[in-house]
Amino acid sequence: MAGGFGLCGIPEALIEAIREAGVMDLTIISNNAGIDNVGLGTLLQTRQVRKMISSYVGENATFAKQYLSGELEIEFNPQGTLAERIRAGGAGIPAFFTATGYGTDVAKGKETREFNGRHYVMETGLFADLAIVHAWKGDSEGNLVYRKTARNFNPMMATAAKFTVAEVENLVEPGEIDPDHIITPGIFVKRIVKLGQIEKRIEQRTVRKRAA
């Protein structure tokens, strides 16, 4: 599992470490596959990814080429379903029913049931061998705080893996984070990586035109 949404809150340093390690045939659970040359897109370029379990992959030309040529497998999920599958995995819930996707290709091959006159699709929880997440602040006990939109998929993914590694922008001593502000308790985090200087990338820059 790799946190982030677009290029916001992605564990870029940890993705680069995986690229350098050269591990192949990866199945990656992530909302999207980054863009060409950035984020998970770098693992696609080195062909280290065999399968993506995602919600949106429309910003990556390399992804499209590999998928259309049969090199890459994709398991699409409605975004809310993907989030709930991850949350369920972290909570130890093996499966749940959702109305989203019933009657569409999303439901093909899956169990369906009717509750109170409405039809539902059974989706399974997701649990990974490894989760990599990005946090704004963390302490040496593994407690994490995320900043604004960069929170996205990171907290739920941190709970849904056998081994979670977090990269943090600011590393502090235990007790320096207000307990009420902790989003991911350290019990879920096995390793912490302190980041140096980081680049805050903008996926699509949109500005209003200046007045004449």
TrEMBL record:
SUPFAM superfamilies in the record: NagB/RpiA/CoA transferase-like
InterPro entries recorded: 3-oxoacid_CoA-transf_A, CoA_trans_fam_I, NagB/RpiA_transferase-like
Pfam families, sorted: CoA_trans
Molecular function (Gene Ontology), one example: transferase activity
UniProt KW Disulfide bond keyword: no
Keywords recorded for this protein, A-Z: Transferase
Domain of life: Bacteria
Keyword Transferase in record: yes
Name of this chain's protein: Succinyl-CoA--3-ketoacid-CoA transferase
Organism: Acidocella aquatica
